[in-house]
Amino acid sequence: MSLLVLGDSLSFHGPRTAHPVDEPRLWPHVAASSLATTADLHVGLGWTARHAWTAVRTDPRVWASVRTADALVLGIGGMDSLPSPLPTAVRELIPVLRPPAVAARARRLYRSRHAGLVRATGGRPTALAPAETVRCLERIRVAVTTLRPHAPVVLLLPSVHRSGLYGGVHSGRSAHVAAMRSWASAHGVRALEVAPLVTEHVLGGHGNPDGIHWGWSAHRVVGEAVAELLRPAEPVVPSGSSSGVVPRARC
């Protein structure tokens, strides 16, 4: 099956920096390789579920990918759960400030004050409210599966972090995990619990020095777990039967 992957920066950052989306060590390609297929990545830095939904609505490259997708993998929602004491739009508008010196000063100010604001507000609000994350995920699911009704959907639940930029705070994660897990259960989406796979790696300092992104070992583990959720179950021979095998679907 061909994988359509919508993801945030965890989908294309490695242990030191960001990589082109065709880097084979990234978890989407690890998953695709395990399934002997390919992955088509549509990802962005800081993407929330709302950014991904906007891409599905407006980006012709995503439209083309949907037409050939055999499975949809949603590697989004983690950014949604991170603290955002200032509106996300404030961060996203910094690059358009002019002259460039003003943008540079605003960026330095944002970075220097952000962790303090996060701690002062207790990590609230988050980049997106859990209900808004789920609303966008559902719109993506409906849009893709309307055209590809037999495509299974996999959702990666939010990871963990130890980022100084966020003051080590991730108080909104549990609410997002609960909302996303509930949505997945209600719509037959296969949810992957990412945190148990990467917590030791991230909190132990084995990933990217930024405290958010993963090293290659974590990419491998997550990619293999995604593949396992999509891998068809092995055919089995019913007890007492001699007429061949009967395929058993995973779900």
From TrEMBL:
It comes from Actinomycetospora termitidis. Gene3D superfamilies: SGNH hydrolase. The keyword Transport does not apply. Keywords: Hydrolase. NCBIfam families: DigluglyOctase. Signal peptide: none annotated. One of its GO terms (molecular function) is hydrolase activity. Transmembrane segments: none annotated. This is SGNH/GDSL hydrolase family protein. It comes from the Bacteria.
